[in-house]
Amino acid sequence: MTRAPTTSSDAFGVLGIGQSNVALSTDVMREVVALPHALTPAPMAPAFALGAFKLRDELIPVIDLARLLQLDDSQGTRERDDQVAIVRWQEGHFGLRVDAIHGIAQVLPEHMQPLDYATSDATPLTPAAFTDGDRLVYVLDLDALFALPGMMLARASHHDHEEHPGTRQPADRKINIERALLIDCGGIRLSLPAAMVREIQPLDTLSAPVMDVSGFMGTTTLRRQTLAVFDPRVLAGLDDQPRPEGRLMVVVAVREQPLALCVNQVIRMMTYNPDDVMALAETHDHPDATIAGMIDHPQLGESLLVDAARFARDTDILTLAAMYIPREGHATRGEVPYRRFAFVHFDAFGQFVTPLEQLSEVIAMPEDFTPSPRTDEGWTGTLAHRGQAVSLVDLRQLLNTPHETPATDVLIVACGEYRVGFMIDNARHIEYLDAPADSLIIRWRGEQEIGTPPIEQCKRLIVVGTGAHKKVLSVLCLETLAALLVDINSSHHCSMIDSASPALSA
Question: Which residues form the CheW-like domain (predicted)?
Fold first, then answer.
């Protein structure tokens, strides 16, 4: 007997939006989750772009299908607990807000009915339809969907790529991203956990050590405080190496005790996944080294990661560091209290300064982020960072100095529930000024007239210090700039400056 040929069916997920139903191929649908109450909105986004949220360390931009398909003309946030269908598309992902998930429909090719749209030259969003029981279901075309202005797509990170297109993976591996400062010490590369790093300073003078302890190089003075200086290669068990000739020091805190590490070069701050740290062989030459393992960074190469916990148990180093901590109550009566003012110098097709206190973090410009449809207004896109959505702004464009050179660093500023990342050419260095706490004076607060662009309202001219140590700085208050970009009517407040000094009267 001859067997009749069989026709395979296609599987579609059927989604309910109001009184209508749409369908997507199950090949692109990853999962369905509840719509979070708190979404981080994207600045100047269309009404159908609800914002973004974090799902297992992934940024999920959410599109409101009902508003997109003009089935709902409401504005603002969604109050009720609807659902979000997570869709994988073009090596990225996004979420579709829907009212209901009706299930999976198996559709034979002959049951798919093409739809003709004679009044439009563009590819229709719903080029075909089928019936699922008593429901009429429109098939959504994702290519046409992403041809619309204002659409958002979060690029998948390296752990989220599938081995084969069309297959789905649970994506349940949590990515723990840590940061470390990569340094070079006479040809030996070490990575210092960012949590223990306090600052980087020139190593100008070095007094001879008072005792012979392995790795102890002597002492130096930083802002009237004596610091013990060590050769960081001792941490790697390489105490038989020649004394380093570095002229830089990295100040670290171990059990809240400051000490300095002499280095030849500070390369950069980098990120790594602790799960990817390669353990050292138990038979290596220095089993007592304060090293957690090896990091093989794709761009920066190999380095030895310092184990902060084991470092904190090194009694020889900590005892020496504690010898130079000043005793409390040593200040002379009536002495004017000094304050340490810190400023970040950076380039944005020109040299600028901003108070360190106004920055949450400085990161390298990411390769992957969700582009913004309003790049003409400075908003470049959105990225996921440390469990939050960060809105990227090209500071060079706001300063009217745009150029073709890609940004290399991002200055992240907290602004209420928002995080704004200012793209710059590069962060150059941090300047520390020790001056009387009451010596900070604002000479000029920028243009404050109604209608003045936010970038002009955030400029400050300040004076710090007294006498021969007085210094004048032209400052960009990025905290105020971020607030004005999010809400032009927001109040002005600059940490360290507006909170510490009255304006100089005319």
Answer: 9-151, 177-317, 338-487
**Cβ contacts of 51 within 8 Å, gap of 6 or more:** 39, 40, 41, 42, 45, 61, 62, 389
Residues 207 and 219: their CA atoms lie apart, in Å, by: 5
CATH topology of domain 338-486: OB fold (Dihydrolipoamide Acetyltransferase, E2P) (2.40.50)
Please report where in the chains the tokens 């084969």 appear, as a residue.
Answer: 164
Give the range with max mean pLDDT: 2-11, 37-46, 260-269, 482-491.
Answer: 260-269
Looking at the whole model, is its pTM more than 0.70? no
Which numeric CATH code is attached to 178-323? 2.40.50.180
Which among 347, 340, 339, 364 has a CA at the least distance from the CA of 429? 347
Q: How far apart are CA 418 and CA 121, in angstroms?
A: 39
280 conformational bin, left if phi > 0, alpha if psi -120 to 50, beta if neither: beta
Q: 10-160 sits in which CATH class?
A: mainly beta
* Domain boundary assignment for the chain: 10-160, 178-323, 338-486
Query: Degrees (nearest 5) of the Cα angle 231, 237, 242?
Result: 50
Q: How far apart are CA 193 and CA 21, in angstroms?
A: 51
Rounded-to-integer distance, Cα 340 and Cα 355, Å: 12
End-to-end alpha carbon distance in the chain: 104
Residue 142, sorted as left (phi over 0), alpha (psi -120 to 50) or beta, turns out to be: alpha
Count of beta carbons in the 10 Å neighbourhood of residue 91: 13
Residue with tokens 């001792």: 234
pLDDT tens string 63-114: 888 888 777 767 666 655 578 888 888 778 888 888 888 888 888 888 898 8
Question: pLDDT tens for residues 475-501?
Answer: 999 998 998 888 777 666 677 776 555
What integer is the mean pLDDT of 379-394? 87
Other C-beta atoms closer than 10 Å to the C-beta of 7 total 8
Count of Cβ atoms closer than 10 Å to residue 445 Cβ: 19
Query: Per DSSP, what are the bridge partners of residue 294?
Result: 278, 304
Q: Is 374 exposed, middle or buried (0-12, 13-18, 19+ CB in 10 A)?
A: middle
Q: How confident is the model at residue 30 (pLDDT cuts 50, 70, 90)?
A: confident
d(CA 307, CA 314): 11
Report the C-alpha gap between 156 and 190 in whole angstroms.
Answer: 30
pLDDT in tens, 309-359: 888 777 777 777 777 765 444 444 445 677 778 888 999 888 899 998 888
Q: How many residues does this entry show for the chain?
A: 506
